[in-house]
Design goal:
The protein has a single domain, classed as GIY-YIG endonuclease (3-Layer(aba) Sandwich), CATH 3.40.1440. A three-stranded antiparallel β-sheet has the order 2-1-3. With about 90 residues, the protein is of the alpha+beta class. It is built from three helices and three strands; from the N terminus they run E-E-H-E-H-H.
Length: about 90
Amino acid sequence: MFVYILKSLKDLKTYTGFSLDVGKRIKEHNQGKVDATKHRRPFVLLYKENCFDLKEAKKREKYWKSGAGRRKLKQFFKNGFPLIQNE
């Protein structure tokens, strides 16, 4: 299970989600198959992290959507993103 962060090239905002197959999920986002993001295409992968299970993935997704997670994202934009995990 992975948590991933995408960047919309249309509005430059991020989207955070989780999936077993990040590559497949990004394709779904970019093909307009995800209602939450279909008007913000195209997307590029900024970051992904491996999670032990669904519970951990939901916890990490919640973190990245929190104030602390958003501040960390701002830091990444300023200082550069870490290498994408498990690529």
